[in-house]
Amino acid sequence: MSALRNEQIISPPTSPEESALARESSRLLAACIGHGKTARLRVIDGDGVIEVPVAALRMLVDILTNMAAGNAMSLVPIHAELTTQQTADFLNVSRPYVVGLLERGELAHHKVGTHRRVRFSDLMAYKQEQLGKSKARLVELAKLDQELGLH
Asked: Which of 123, 49, 43 is nearest to 86 (CA)?
């Protein structure tokens, strides 16, 4: 997905020492996050104090936690536009399946020339909707299981 505009790929640590550093940094940073909207950081290598949004610090904690676990991450701006292949990769389905979703109007998209593009925000809305439907089906199955005494 490196073709996305402004996408940042964060590679996992390459050594056990980097992984341990990411784990410890994540733990320490998480413990420092307050309840306000901003936090002030002092960087030892610099002279000043940096004020950053707490939401950004929470993202940094998540990044460090994933790095410590050896997971690569990708940060994608909400306004990014994905190709059908990138959309398929994100949903872990085939590209023809995604094209079917688009053609049936189940997933919003627009065309750039002859190419279909899916806004990342629309993709996330679709994914949330699908998760909601899945949870509702599971609740329905659990009720049916109890009614039939199959548990």
From this structure: 123
Q: Which domain holds residue 12?
A: 8-75
Whole-structure pTM value = 0.64
Residues 6 or more apart whose Cβ sits within 8 Å of residue 110: 116, 117, 119
Residue with tokens 């190709």: 83
Per DSSP bridges, beta strands 8-10 and 110-112 are: unpaired
**What CATH number does residue 29 fall under?**
3.90.1280
**C-alpha atoms less than 13 angstroms from C-alpha of 148 in its C-beta half-sphere:** 8
User: How do residues 15-24 score in pLDDT, each as one tens digit?
Assistant: 889 999 999 9
> CA 129, 132, 133 angle in degrees (round to 5)?
90
Q: How far apart are CA 54 and CA 38, in angstroms?
A: 5
Query: Which of 60, 75, 90 is at the close of a domain?
Result: 75
Task: Judge contact between 27 and 62, C-beta under 8 A.
Answer: no
d(CA 45, CA 89): 40
